[in-house]
Design brief:
Helix content: 25-40%
Largest sheet: 6 strands, parallel
Radius of gyration: 25 Å
Strand order of the largest sheet: 3-2-1-4-5-6
Strand content: 5-15%
Number of strands: 11
Shape: elongated
CATH superfamily of the largest domain: Crotonobetainyl-coa:carnitine coa-transferase, domain 1
Number of domains: 2
Distance between the termini: 31 Å
CATH architecture of the largest domain: 3-Layer(aba) Sandwich
Oligomer: single chain
Order of helices and strands: EHEHEHEHHEHHEHHEEHHHHHEHEEHH
CATH class of the largest domain: Alpha Beta
Structural class: alpha/beta
Length: about 375
């Protein structure tokens, strides 16, 4: 039997929604035991939808293989039980409202005083500064506040990014923060505290446009299916009405595009288009000329030419296209209702550790499914 990297570690999670559950879901995938503390009515993400054969699609994604323990931490007996579990735990992850667990006697600093090998991870919306600490934060709100939405979408319309990417990115960031703390503990023998906020994650992703705004000629504007600082890099419509995205990354590719795809050698040396800077400055004229050529081609003919010229391209896919995409790997997840769903596979593939190559997913727990067993174990 293969031993996974985090086998033997116990993680306690007072979590809800997406960011913290996704962090601890990745810890499960790496072999850790995750005890998920829920209220009697459960993590509210259980009710986001019922698409996964009765389970929420969000919940099925981020809670595979966890143990659900229902506690009321305001009850002295339940609080004592939680302390008993945490005294033996390796990692504690929480994303409740700022200060909520401190008021209940479960602040991360105090927990690490009791159990000096404990690693704590606090996930918040905006961090701990007084001006924003109490500000409620959810994915779409932070997309908006961080400026992410402000530079996304079409020129005339704002739009939410199509998935909860700030939640997901925060979960992944918290995950690698916990892993760094585990490595550090291996050196020092002592746990440490990790803090991650949704806003910090979104702001980190906004580094390039922010730097362009603060130190350059100005940040990017909304350009739809185009790249704000590279041209041509965007979607072009062929004669059948379908869209193909192409990406030109250097001048060698630009010349090949002109000669082998557009069959227009003059455009390659046109002074308006002979560098990326010039192409961006003259984007409208560039795309007008390209559209007149590409619009006369079928998608198949256009994409065949791109392939022969070794030009990167992609289809603008629908969800139906994704569901049948040849690159999509899946894994079977057992829902809390006794069904199975085929969800996307873990994105990291190990080549030398069989148990990690095709990670098996545990069942999505029902509310309080493991309460009796855990009370017996730690009570």
């Amino acid at each position: 039997m293969t031993t996974l990297p985090l086998t033997g570690l116990t993680v306690v999670a007072v979590e809800q929604a997406v960011a913290a559950p996704l962090c601890t879901a990745r810890l499960v995938d790496a072999g850790a035991r995750v005890i998920k503390i829920e209220r009697a009515d459960g993590d509210f993400a259980r009710g986001y939808d019922d698409a996964a054969h009765g389970d929420s699609s969000y919940f099925a994604w981020a809670n595979q293989g966890k143990e659900s323990l229902v506690l009321d931490i305001k009850d002295p007996n339940d609080a004592a039980l939680l302390h008993s579990i945490l005294d033996e735990a390796d990692v504690f992850v929480q994303n409740l409202a700022p200060g909520a667990l401190e008021r209940a006697g479960f602040g991360s600093d105090a927990l690490r005083e009791r159990n000096q090998r404990l690693i704590t991870c606090d996930i918040s919306g905006y961090g701990e500064s007084a001006e924003v600490a109490d500000k409620k934060a959810y994915d779409l709100l932070v997309q908006a506040e961080s400026g992410l939405i402000g530079i996304s979408g079409s020129p005339n319309e704002l739009g939410r990014i199509g998935v909860s990417m700030v939640d997901a990115g925060t979960g992944m960031t918290a995950y690698y923060g916990v892993l760094e703390a585990i490595i550090q503990r291996g050196v020092t023998g002592k746990g440490s505290g990790v803090r991650v906020s949704l806003f910090d994650v979104a702001a980190d992703w906004m580094t390039v446009p922010l730097a362009q705004h603060d130190f350059g000629a100005g940040g990017p504007t909304r350009v739809g299916l185009k790249h704000p600082t590279i041209a041509p890099y965007g979607a072009f419509e062929t004669s059948d009405g379908s869209l193909t995205l192409i990406s030109i990354q250097n001048e060698r590719e630009w010349v090949r595009l002109c000669k082998q795809v557009l069959l227009d050698t003059a455009i390659a040396i046109d002074s308006r288009f002979n560098s990326n800077t010039n192409r961006v400055a003259n984007r409208d004229a560039l795309e007008s000329r390209m559209n007149s050529i590409i619009g006369a081609l079928s998608r198949t003919e256009f994409q065949n030419r791109l392939t022969e010229a070794s030009i990167a391209y992609g289809n603008v896919s629908s969800l139906a296209d994704l569901s049948t995409h040849p690159a999509l790997r899946r894994r079977t997840v057992h829902t809390s209702t006794g069904h199975t769903v085929e969800l996307p596979a873990h994105p990291v593939r190990w080549t030398e550790l069989p148990g990690m190559a095709e990670r098996q997913s545990g069942r999505v727990p029902t509310i309080g499914q493991h309460t009796a067993a855990i009370r017996s174990e730690f009570g």
